[in-house]
Amino acid sequence: MQLTDLTDQQLVDRANAGEAAAFDTLYQRYKDWAFRLALRETGRDEGLAADAVQDSFLYLLKKFPGFELQAKLTTFLYPVVKHNAQSADRKRRRKTPSGPQTDSADETDSEPEPDRLDGLRSILGTLPEHQREVVFMRFLDDMSLNEIALALGIPLGTVKSRLHHAIGALREEPACRAYFDIDP
């Protein structure tokens, strides 16, 4: 059996036992996910996102041996990557007051064309940050409601409420209805 066939828990167990290749497999499995999250949090600055991912996996590496996986690894990594990316973004803004960079680099090859993607970002930008974050976690990061609650450190009911209100607001948003070609 190859390391790539093992579950996260099995890889964590092996990394706790000192097997460096197990940690590398975890890194390979989650680096792209972490990079996409960091891109969202840094205003699409690829350099800052890459630094945040590196810092986040270094933080995870320091947890070994002795790291206990109590949920999906993304549940543990989400607040770490988010914090590192936001911290790097704040440092950049202090150095350059021009605000976040907006380059046109795509997150993945399968994303919609830039104009459509910008339209979707604009629509989601109408949501309050706490609602937008839950929408991203649920639908972009494919996290369960329980995983979102764990990652954010908030009650499950709060996650459900935020998601419910976000979806309701998006249903009422004319730009959203036009984007998805939904008749009123």
Summarize the structure.
This protein is mostly helical and 184 residues long.
Would you spell out the secondary-structure blueprint of this structure?
Layout lengths: L7 H9 L3 H22 L4 H17 L10 H23 L18 H11 L4 H12 L4 H8 L3 H17 L1 H6 L5
Helix pairs in contact: 1-2, 2-3, 2-4, 3-4, 4-7, 6-8, 7-8
Determine the CATH superfamily of the largest domain.
RNA polymerase sigma factor, region 2, helix turn helix motif
pLDDT < 50 stretches: 99-113
Quote the average pLDDT.
87
Helix and strand run? HHHHHHHHH
| CATH-defined fold name of the largest domain | Rna Polymerase Sigma Factor, Chain: A
Radius of gyration over C-alpha positions, nearest whole angstrom: 18 Å
CATH class call of the largest domain: Mainly Alpha
What is the count of structural domains? Answer: 2
Shape: globular
Major beta-sheet overview = none
Portion of residues in beta strands equals under 5%
In DSSP terms (H or I, runs of 4 or more residues), the helix count works out at: 9
